[in-house]
Amino acid sequence: MSKKQKSILSKEALTFLRNYLNNPSPTGFEKEGQRMWLEYLKPYIDEHYVDAYGSAVGIINPKAPFKVVIEAHADEISWFVNYISPEGLIYVIRNGGSDQQIAPSKRVNIHTEKGIVKAVFGWPAIHTRLRSTEGKDPQPKVENIFLDCGARNRKEVEDLGIHVGCVVTFEDGFEELNYDYFICRALDNRIGGFMIAEVARMLKEKKQSLPFGLYIVNAVQEEVGLRGAEMIAKRIKPDVAIITDVTHDTTTPMINKNIEGEIRCGNGPSITYGPAVHNILRDLIIKTAKKNEIPHQLHAVSRSTGTDTDAFAYSNDGTPSALISIPLRYMHTTVEMIKRDDVENTIHLIYQTLLNITPKTNFKYL
Predict the structure, then answer these.
(1) Is residue 70 part of a domain?
(2) Three-state SS at 13
(3) Domains in the chain: how many in total?
(4) CATH number for the domain harbouring residue 326
(5) β-strand partners of 47
(6) Last residue of a domain, one of 126, 147, 170
């Protein structure tokens, strides 16, 4: 954390974070997670609404003409049931950027109208794999990974309520690791939803009055093309948008810093340079970080950010937008890892940046 900033994560906030992360929120099926997020947010906002596809918006000062968005995305990667074999094995396709390499031996929840059905991603034992393929160990692919729910024919699978189109999520939940690390599936990017909710809480508890309307947005369907952000940006028509997401900790093995840059967990939020990022807004964020002694890092992207920043930036004839990312290890696995200090410093940076924005702030390019 910054030298001046004490811990801002209350016991209540951490309880919400644990429950929020443990609740599944797969792309296209974010409903329960959005309901949980809104219930936590409601004491700190004036109004809220949910759009047709599930993006949730909390508003402070809803009648103000100047509109500022702080945004995260609510969805997590998952799988769809795609085919049920005569032997009762279940084959899947991706819902978002799911990684087939990590699937074998993972426990999963299959979501049906009857409730959760437990299953596992089965995988042949190493003994039989090597003998059956003359020593050429097969690699997990989307077309060869499969779920085993205990059924031994198609009818037994269907009797459990499983059908083509059922969504499948990994079971792994929230844990606290050594040296103040949090691990969980789906920190990408429900940690963002948590952080913007905490910004709203801080504004309320510190009785800060903002000279603009603040729209706290938890958008759906980022993992399949920024779709929720595209829709909600057109509806809100913000004057400014600050997006928060995760970014790679590039100090882990098998990442080339010459290509990815150097970002490290524990060194503070990452502020992005790139075509979609508005220079004036980004510089305001950097100046805010320096003024408040908030640790931060810099990151560059050559084309798109790959986040909801792009959707907001290129909406409504152009919206000044910036990206603040939290470093994360092992993205799109079930053991995504972040540092508690980075969470608190990201919340603090967004909060302080909002205090430096007014309707008179000049975001004109020339």
Answers:
(1) yes
(2) helix
(3) 2
(4) 3.40.630.10
(5) 59
(6) 170
Task: Kindly provide the residue ranges of all beta strands, DSSP E only, lying in the chain, ordered along the sequence.
Answer: 47-50, 56-60, 67-73, 78-84, 90-95, 107-112, 115-122, 146-148, 167-170, 175-177, 181-184, 213-219, 240-248, 270-273, 297-300, 321-328, 336-339
Six-digit token string for 43: 């004491």
Residue with tokens 């807004």: 281
Contact (CB, 8 A) for 151 and 157: yes
Domain extent at residue 134 = 78-170
Burial 217-255 (b: 16+ CB within 10 A, else e): bbbbbbbbebbbbbbbbebbebbbbbbbbbbbbbeeeee
CA–CA separation, 64 vs 55, rounded Å?
21
User: What tokens appear for 141 in the block?
Assistant: 């692919």
Cα–Cα distance for residue pair 265/269, rounded to 1 Å: 9
> Using one digit for the tens of pLDDT, what is the confidence trace for 138-174?
899 999 999 999 999 999 999 999 999 999 999 999 9
* Entry pTM: 0.96
* 333 and 214 housed in the same domain: yes
User: Of 137, 170, 203, which one is at a domain's C-terminal end?
Assistant: 170
